[in-house]
Design brief:
The structure holds three protein chains of three kinds. Chain A is mainly alpha-helical. Chain A is built from 13 helices and four strands. In chain C, strands 1-4 form a two-stranded antiparallel ribbon. Classes of the chains: A mainly alpha, B alpha/beta, C mainly alpha.
Chain lengths: 295, 239, 289
């Protein structure tokens, strides 16, 4: 497999974490324009821990996930009680604040005579743990997908469980769920923390794949893109967001067919698709149909 | 001669059929009443006639023309106006603006102004509150406003969905007095009511509806009144 | 003291452009109850159309303004037909994500048609700024403020003195009752969209000629500012949109003076977040789903 294909596939995997994180919140009934902020938190935290303090990547990743979870939890605490669009705008505001904070964040250490660390708008270069430990691109691809597979398994297990039904119930009809004894706010906060951790994991992996990150990477476009992937792929299953990511990054960009006007094609496709399937390709009905067919 | 003919109308919400094949008629120049317990589908029927809901099957013939599934504004253009359940006034617009909105499709400015005066004459309390925001009116006043607004389109058929809901008895009497007046002036009225007693006093013909179908059709003397009331509130004894 | 006055003045002018953008957003939101993420990009499309005309034909300012307005209306109609008409009774999220998809289209289209990152745009007024004692007034800013005032007056007249306006207010107030009163809601949606796009197009033209340049970032920038101003003023309220826009302008002008451009944006977003988190009543009363 050539380097370009490996690169595209790795990208698909990385962005999938972000799309899954948006999807998780959508299932619980919340639309977030801000998951890119937690992606960024993971990227910066993980990068700092490995590049500046020599932490091993797995440990840094766990720490980054914890930070991502905490960050999203804290953002969610005052905002999850807001309805629909208000919550979305709050996440947008929070994410833009995060991005600006990344721009203002200068924190470097001298390592072997060189300054290492986030340097505001100049970015954060030298996140080279993966290269310094001899992990090949193909190997890294494997790691990313192994972790993604783990996440997917977790999702699929939850979806078939009572927790999954509770989540969807909260998302569809919070009043009904509350009247059945569900602590809606606690559920949503839990979902928020999980979504934050997921996005942060993607961020850590992203930072170590690119070796260089800058605040511009984590702008509103990334966030709305991941929301779009989740929605067009379909809200019926965790595989939905992946379908969305594969469609855009994989098929359209990877194939280089529509080079230069990929977004025009993709944008048009998305709008048309949503007319036909407002809840995405793999929406609840499609998933049920597939389950019946293959069981 | 029937002004409105509903023929085997089926209206569903997703998989749930609220109307399971409803057939009834409203004769020209009459007050026809539709009674029935909650959940029978009376409001669904009204909304289907007014075009807010699209029937899945069946026909709704108004003056011989099938209006089922048409857009609400074109149904108003044909001469059908609905006074909805819960009145649905325009809360942040004034009483006067509400009335003018009801005449939206008309172009004859002077005649509209005349009609407004006529509404004020018929509903003096609305005149007092002409410049007041409709949302601040009392329930009874809002009901009058909703009726007046519907009348501003000069409908041939006035549909009324539970006009007495939530109103004090004196106000209810006033509402029904107005219904009788309108009828005398030539408007055909199709009235959904929970208050079977008052409804039977004014109607020439009535229907009972239960669980999405018409269960009885007749004139007010045809069933004993307490039987009608029982079935209107509780449904028939057969399960 | 003069700094304070100057910043306040600048803030008001800046705020007028935000107010216009917010008005466009709010018209669409108030009537359709949906957020149109392609609003800014449609504005940008209008500006780019005007830029293209300027580059190829060197037309006068009035003509360019008309092109910008028409371009925005055209772009807005495209968005309305593809993203909002099909989802009218359905999913708000689908409509919004579709509008985002078209945003992507507009941005790419702009970079294809006019590939350079920055293009010159003719200035409204080539001359020097006016001076009033210690305060300076750019003529462009004055025009912007005047335009905002005029648009507000025009909008008020349309909404309160025309039949169309009654229909728009009826749909905003109680959509189902509007249908029952014989108002064609789909038609009102289309016309409102056109009106909102026209206002946006004018705003875009004024902004572009005020900065004397256009960039592809105009789309995102307009969307962000419009959304922020709309939320600050209270979602769905037209007077609120104007006040929100002015407030945002004032906030930015003063923050920039004290803290610099990055912190300026930080403060605006932080304010929005705090207001939302505190569930300030004027901001969270309108139904937004």
């Amino acid at each position: 497999m050539d380097d370009y294909a490996i690169g595209v596939l790795t990208n698909v995997g990385l962005i999938s974490f972000l799309a899954l994180s948006a999807y998780l919140l959508l299932i619980a009934g919340e639309m977030s324009f801000g998951q890119q902020a937690f992606f960024g938190v993971g990227a910066y935290a993980g990068g700092m821990l490995t590049a500046m303090y020599g932490w091993p990547l797995p440990l840094a990743a766990l720490c980054a996930m914890a930070l991502g979870a905490l960050a999203q939890f804290l953002v969610g605490l005052p905002t999850l009680r807001l309805r629909g669009l208000y919550f979305a705008m709050a996440t947008l505001a929070a994410a833009e604040m995060a991005r600006i904070l990344f721009e203002l964040f200068h924190f470097q250490r001298q390592l072997e005579g060189e300054p290492v660390g986030p340097d505001g708008t100049q970015g954060f270069r030298g996140i080279r743990w993966v290269f310094e430990h001899g992990v090949e691109p193909l190997g890294y691809l494997g790691i990313v997908y192994a972790l993604l597979a783990l996440a997917l398994v977790a999702f699929l297990l939850v979806e078939r469980s009572r927790l999954g039904a509770t989540l969807r119930g909260v998302g569809e009809d919070p009043e009904l769920a509350a009247s059945l004894g569900v602590d809606v706010n606690r559920v949503k906060l839990g979902v928020a923390a999980a979504a934050g951790a997921l996005a942060a994991l993607g961020g850590v992996l992203y930072a170590h794949h690119n070796t260089y990150i800058e605040p511009r990477n984590f702008d509103i476009m990334l966030g709305v893109h991941s929301l779009a992937y989740a929605l067009i792929g379909g809200l019926g299953t965790a595989l939905g967001p992946l379908v969305g990511v594969v469609l855009d990054i994989g098929a359209l960009e990877g194939s280089r067919v529509f080079h230069g006007y990929r977004m025009i094609v993709f944008g048009g496709l998305v709008a048309l698709l949503l007319i036909w399937r407002p809840r995405g390709l793999l929406d609840e009905r499609a998933v049920q149909w597939l389950r019946r067919r293959f069981s | 001669m029937s002004l409105l003919r509903v023929r085997d109308v089926v209206t569903a919400y997703g998989k749930i059929e609220a109307l399971k094949g409803v057939s009834l008629e409203v004769a020209q120049g009459s007050i026809t009443c539709l009674l029935g317990p909650n959940g029978a589908g009376k409001t669904t029927l009204m909304m289907s006639i007014a075009g807010i809901l699209k029937p899945r099957k069946g026909a709704i013939l108004f003056g011989g023309e099938d209006i089922a599934g048409r857009a609400p504004h074109s149904i108003v253009a044909k001469g059908v106006a609905l006074v909805p359940e819960n009145r649905l006034v325009f809360p942040s617009m004034t009483v006067l603006e509400n009335l003018n909105a009801g005449a939206y499709q008309r172009g004859d400015r002077n005649a509209i102004a005349d009609d407004v005066e006529r509404m004020f004459a018929r509903f003096p309390r609305l005149k007092e509150r002409a410049a007041q925001q409709a949302g601040t009116l009392s329930g009874g006043e809002q009901q009058m406003l909703a009726v007046a607004r519907a009348l501003m389109s000069r409908p041939k058929l006035l549909l009324m969905d539970e006009p007495s809901l939530g109103l004090a008895p004196l106000v209810v009497e006033e509402i029904f007095r107005i219904v009788t007046e309108l009828h005398k002036d030539g408007t055909s009225i199709f009235l959904v009511e929970q208050n079977a007693h008052m409804a039977l006093k004014v109607a020439q013909h009535f229907y009972l509806m239960e669980q999405g179908k018409v269960s009885f059709s007749g004139t007010p003397g045809a069933l004993a009144e307490d039987e009608v009331i029982r079935r209107a509130y509780l449904g028939s004894s057969k399960t | 003291m003069t700094d304070l006055a100057q910043n306040t003045l600048d803030g008001l002018f800046l705020g007028s452009s935000y107010a216009l953008l917010a008005l466009g957003f709010t018209l669409i939101f108030g009537v359709l109850r949906r957020v149109n993420l392609s609003f800014g990009p449609a504005v940008m499309f209008g500006c780019y159309a005007a830029t293209w005309v300027h580059l190829n034909f060197g037309a006068g300012l009035v003509l360019l303004a008309m092109v910008a307005v028409l371009g925005s209306i055209l772009a807005g109609a495209y968005v309305e037909r593809l993203c909002f008409a099909p989802h009218r009774g359905g999913s708000a999220i689908a409509a919004m994500v579709a509008s985002f998809a078209l945003w992507m289209q507009f941005e790419e289209l702009a970079t294809i048609a006019l590939p350079r990152h920055v293009y010159d745009f003719p200035a409204l007024h080539g001359g020097a700024p006016l001076a009033f004692g210690a305060l300076t007034l750019r003529v462009e800013s004055l025009v912007m403020l005047l335009a905002a005032v005029l648009v507000c007056a025009l909008l008020w007249w349309i909404l309160y003195r025309t039949r169309f306006g009654v229909a728009v207010r009826a749909v905003i107030d109680q959509p189902q009752a509007a249908q029952l009163a014989g108002i064609s809601v789909p038609r009102i949606f289309m016309l409102t969209f056109a009106l909102a796009s026209a206002i946006g197009g004018l705003a875009g033209f004024l902004i572009a000629s005020s900065h004397e340049q256009v960039t592809p970032m105009l789309g995102m920038w307009s969307t962000m500012k419009g959304l922020l101003a709309m939320m600050l003023g209270g979602l769905g309220s037209l007077p609120g949109a104007v006040l929100g826009g002015l407030a945002l302008g004032l906030l930015e002008a003063h923050s920039q003076w004290f803290f610099g451009p990055q912190t300026r944006d930080l403060i605006a977003y932080a304010l929005l977040f705090i207001l939302l988190a505190a569930r300030v009543p004027w901001m969270t009363t309108r139904s937004a789903s």
